[in-house]
């Protein structure tokens, strides 16, 4: 039994043995019966860890030293904060993800009687990302750094010379613009002092088209725009976002085109998609193709269906399924994404798909009245999943099939449980590894009415 006296305090240094991995990637250990989630630790590791947060039922800690490695631990290939699971052999990463989906559905959702199909492994375990968001910082000798935040640190950057999650071309595009920043003598924005200019650098790459787009995010300070434009030679597009937000985010601010074109193009399946800087696009093109193919397989269309594609982004899922169904109605919050979806439908000669900007929570009923009852409803929500109200609206819409594309099994589980109470049966689920070397899990679920 844990008592208040044995609960560790913030800042305490503990020696712990890790039992398992929690959803999200932290190791789980017990200290006098009290649960401690330890980042940077794997099952079987004996670690020294510093407590960063203490709650009533658990604490969070960060491993500062591996005292004795567990049996699954392997040597990392790079100092890369974006690849925390590189110390776990890839086969084990897949096993853990598969088990976490099973756990979420059975333990959180109390679901049973469904098939959990084997996880689809990634085509590439490194250099798979089509988008990388770097941060700027200042090194110990005052030098400009570009890299990723050290785990749990907003004020410390791990500089990256070769990001192994991006292609070599995408690394060169980063260096090209960082080189210009150095030539200009620009410094990183410092949140504490409010000094400095450079905040983030976003590199996107059309893996099938070779198109490279760079977006430089700075404070509102002026830059030599003409010289920046010249530095963007060879890029499909160079954009500049000015933001005075105190938050560390690449969203928001004022974006202008400095050179080239503002949308970058990618090919998925047989279709090409132009993507605005603010629109969502899956970060692993090759695996997005597999994910969408799996969603279509689970939908098993006959050609007669009316399909709702909710949280449709730039319309990828709806458009890829459109040749095999009667009609598609897409709904998405971000207006630029809907403008992209409409333009993409035209460019791909898709004439049975319509796209609308709106909040699913408010607009689904209206869509149902306007379009008529859907036969197939696809949802692909962000990590928090669907609210209970949205699930009620989905049940009310009454599709015979629901295909749920989820980037978070812990929110899929309660959503699927509520759908089950509303008369849907969870038929099968399959994880797809979109994010090797990280704990992120994507999966597709098929639910049928009755
Ligand atoms: C995981 S993405 C999926 C996008 C698309 N299905 C794809 O595969 O590219 C989730 C999308 O939901 C949108 N979104 C978030 N909240 C929403 C809401 N309340 N109503 C409609 N769309 C929303 C986001 O803008 C984002 O495009």
Helix/strand layout:
Layout: E1 13-21, E2 27-31, E3 34-39, E4 46-54, E5 58-68, H1 90-108, E6 115-116, E7 131-138, E8 144-149, E9 157-159, H2 168-183, E10 198-205, E11 212-218, H3 225-231, E12 237-242, E13 254-260, E14 264-268, E15 271-275, H4 285-299, E16 306-310, H5 316-321, E17 327-332, H6 335-347, E18 353-357, H7 360-371, E19 376-379, H8 388-397, E20 401-406, H9 409-421, E21 424-432, E22 442-449
Bound molecules: S-adenosylmethionine (SAM).
Return the CATH topology of the largest domain: Rossmann fold
Shape: globular
Tell me the number of structural domains.
Answer: 3
Mean pLDDT: 94
Mind explaining what this structure looks like?
- It is built from nine helices and 22 strands.
- The relative contact order is 0.11.
- The protein is globular, with a radius of gyration of 23 Å.
- It folds into three domains: 4-72, Beta Barrel (OB fold (Dihydrolipoamide Acetyltransferase, E2P)), CATH 2.40.50.140; 93-124 and 284-449, Vaccinia Virus protein VP39 (Rossmann fold, 3-Layer(aba) Sandwich); 131-262, OB fold (Dihydrolipoamide Acetyltransferase, E2P).
- The protein has helices at 90-108, 168-183, 225-231, 285-299, 316-321, 335-347, 360-371, 388-397, 409-421; strands at 13-21, 27-31, 34-39, 46-54, 58-68, 115-116, 131-138, 144-149, 157-159, 198-205, 212-218, 237-242, 254-260, 264-268, 271-275, 306-310, 327-332, 353-357, 376-379, 401-406, 424-432, 442-449.
- It is α/β, with parallel strands linked by helices and 450 residues long.
- The mean pLDDT is 94.
- Helix 7 (360-371) runs parallel beside helix 8.
- Strands 6-21-22-20-19-16-17-18 form an eight-stranded mixed sheet, with helices on both faces. A seven-stranded mixed sheet has the order 9-8-7-10-11-12-13, covered by helices on one side. It has a five-stranded mixed β-barrel with strand order 1-2-3-5-4.
- The two termini are 46 Å apart.
- It binds S-adenosylmethionine (SAM).
- S-adenosylmethionine is lined by residues 280-282, 311-313, 316-317, 331-334, 337, 359-361, 380-382, 407.
């Amino acid at each position: 039994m844990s008592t208040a006296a044995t609960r560790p305090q913030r800042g305490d240094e503990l020696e712990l043995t890790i039992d398992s991995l929690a959803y999200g990637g932290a190791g789980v250990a017990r200290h006098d019966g009290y649960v401690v989630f330890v980042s940077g630790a794997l099952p079987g590791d004996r670690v020294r860890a510093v407590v960063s947060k203490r709650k009533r039922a658990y604490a969070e800690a960060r491993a500062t030293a591996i005292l004795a490695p567990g049996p699954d631990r392997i040597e990392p290939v790079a100092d890369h904060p974006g690849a925390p699971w590189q110390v776990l052999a890839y086969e084990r990463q897949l096993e853990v993800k598969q088990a976490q989906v099973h756990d979420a559905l059975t333990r959180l959702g109390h679901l049973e009687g469904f098939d959990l199909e084997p996880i689809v492994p990634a085509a590439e375990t490194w250099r798979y990302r089509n988008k990388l968001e770097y941060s700027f910082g200042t090194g110990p000798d005052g030098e400009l750094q570009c890299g990723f935040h050290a785990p749990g640190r907003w004020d410390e950057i791990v500089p990256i010379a070769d990001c192994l999650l991006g292609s070599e071309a995408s690394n060169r595009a980063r260096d090209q613009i960082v080189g210009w920043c150095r030539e200009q003598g620009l410094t990183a924005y410092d949140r504490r002092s409010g000094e400095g200019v450079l905040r983030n650098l976003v590199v996107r790459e059309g893996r099938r088209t070779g198109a490279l787009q760079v977006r430089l995010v700075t404070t509102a300070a002026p830059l030599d725009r003409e010289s920046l434009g010249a530095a963007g030679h060879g890029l499909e597009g160079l954009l500049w976002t000015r933001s005075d937000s105190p938050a560390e985010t690449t969203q928001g601010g004022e974006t202008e085109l400095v050179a080239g074109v503002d949308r970058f193009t990618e090919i998925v399946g047989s279709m090409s998609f132009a993507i605005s800087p603010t629109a969502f696009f899956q970060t692993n093109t090759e695996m997005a193709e597999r994910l969408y193919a799996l969603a279509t397989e689970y939908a098993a269309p006959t050609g007669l269906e009316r399909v709702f594609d909710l949280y449709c982004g730039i319309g990828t899922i709806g458009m890829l399924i459109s040749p095999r169904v009667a009609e598609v109605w897409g709904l998405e919050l971000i207006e630029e994404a809907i403008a992209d979806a409409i333009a993409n439908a035209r460019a791909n000669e898709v004439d049975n798909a319509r796209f609308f900007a709106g909040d699913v929570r408010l607009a689904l009923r209206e869509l149902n009245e306007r379009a008529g009852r859907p036969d197939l409803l696809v949802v692909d929500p962000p990590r928090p999943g669907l609210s209970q109200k949205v699930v009620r609206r989905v049940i009310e819409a009454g599709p015979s099939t629901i295909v749920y594309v989820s980037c978070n099994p812990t929110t899929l589980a309660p959503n699927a449980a509520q759908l089950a109470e509303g008369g849907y049966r969870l038929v099968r689920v399959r994880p797809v590894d979109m994010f090797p070397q990280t704990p992120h899990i994507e999966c597709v679920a098929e639910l049928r009415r009755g």
